[in-house]
Amino acid sequence: MTTTSADPVTFEDALERYDPVMGMEVHVELNTASKMFCGCSTVFGAEPNTQVCPVCLGLPGALPVVNARAIESAIKIGLALNCSIAPWCRFARKNYFYPDMPKNFQTSQYDEPIAYSGWTEIEVDGVSYRIEIERAHMEEDTGKSLHVGGATGRIHGASHSLVDYNRAGIPLIEIVTKPIEGTGAKSPEVARAYVAHLRELVLGLGVSDVRMEQGSMRCDVNLSLRPIGVTTLGTRSETKNVNSLRSVERAVRHEIGRHAAVLDGGNRIVQETRHWHEDTGVTTAGREKSDAEDYRYFPEPDLVPVAPSREWVEALRAQLPEPPSLHRARLQADWAFSDLEMRDVAGAGAMSLVAETVAAGAAPQAAKKWWLSELARYANEHDIAIDDVPMSPEQVAQVQGLLDAGRINDKLARQVFDGVLAGEGTPEEVVARRGLEVVSDDSALGDAVDRAIDANPDVAAKIAASKHAAAGALIGAVMKEMRGRADAGRVRELILARLG
Ligand SMILES: [Zn+2]
Q1: How many whole angstroms from 58 Cα to the centroid of ligand 1?
Q2: Residue 314 phi, psi (nearest 5)
Q3: If you measure from the C-alpha of residue 170 to the centroid of ligand 1, how many angstroms do you get, rounded to a whole number?
Q4: Which pLDDT tens digit goes with each residue over 112-147?
Q5: Distance 56 CA to ligand 1 centre (A)
């Protein structure tokens, strides 16, 4: 029995016969200043193995201490997901060996998670889906292996591997859904919308920067198929570390087709982890995994139980920000956007960027326009998240300010964006350096208008005969000569004055 060799089945075909069931496991790296059980810094990008100590290196005799801020963040996430918060819970040791885990066990939570039995709601194409949350538990991150000497950075073909323990012990929250059923052909989009929603929710809580491309939010997608009409669950695969919203959608779509092909061939799905390949859009087999994998969990003897007081939990509940759905409804009313416009902004991941651009003084429509056109395109071309575009909402508002003041036109604005994105400075500096300001001074424009009239006598004759629509051709000629910098309105006035 194999799960690899089978004719591919299209997504549409698969859904005619099978009903997909998903489960999402999302790891969120908290933005605490120090690690989960020691005082080491969590700053991203430091020299390897400079942010370590006996506790996070797992040296004998070192004793961990729980980071109170991490507990607070975990409770906030649990409350935002409508979970119950355990009055008493413990950490547990999850025993397994992996080179990037120096203790040979991960301090996690097992049957006593801090938050459980919650729910949240998402929307896809105007339809709401309620996602049930099984649990949100606390654990620590592992270190990072670097495979050197191969072409791909993967372990295959590498000559040796290096380990960086800076990340070992950074607090993580793992959020696990109950099986997500009944989403049918919308499954890939529901999966994506759920992760996008979670990202927005956690960002709103201020407990993580949730950057998928830096790994501070990582997503595992569980998927199984069952024949339509059957209620028992099929065997699932677990696709690990699907690290962009687009990949979440693609991975679900791919796995649905792959499972269908295996099942159609009369074979069994092997319960295993799968690796997602961003470049080729397929998954490949990882390791086989049984349900009751024996991690020999037992309560962590070096840590006291966590027992948050009701007062503390209620105080945190009172501080929760407006839920994303309400927040979005308020923004939509403030901006006077249609449902479709809001969906476009949300889909681009630009909600807070547009909000900040509006707060910096741009009109909502203008803010939306720039983020969804020039800046979304830049992000796409450079394969980065839109948040990482090297231009701030304030700078976008400044470009719009130059436009509103008539100092540049729409075409020149695009060149200002190019300049700022290329690192040439602020919008004002780019305008000055590239000489992009609109010319509305009559003496400079007059000569160009005269030359355009002389070069196009036929057009000039039409305009003189009151065919003012013909002026467009002369305005175009002036614009061309002045490399788009002429004030088109003033040019038109000058042409009509000369020929009127
Ligand atoms: Zn440490």
Answers
A1: 9
A2: -70, -35
A3: 9
A4: 999 999 999 998 887 899 999 999 999 999 999 999
A5: 4
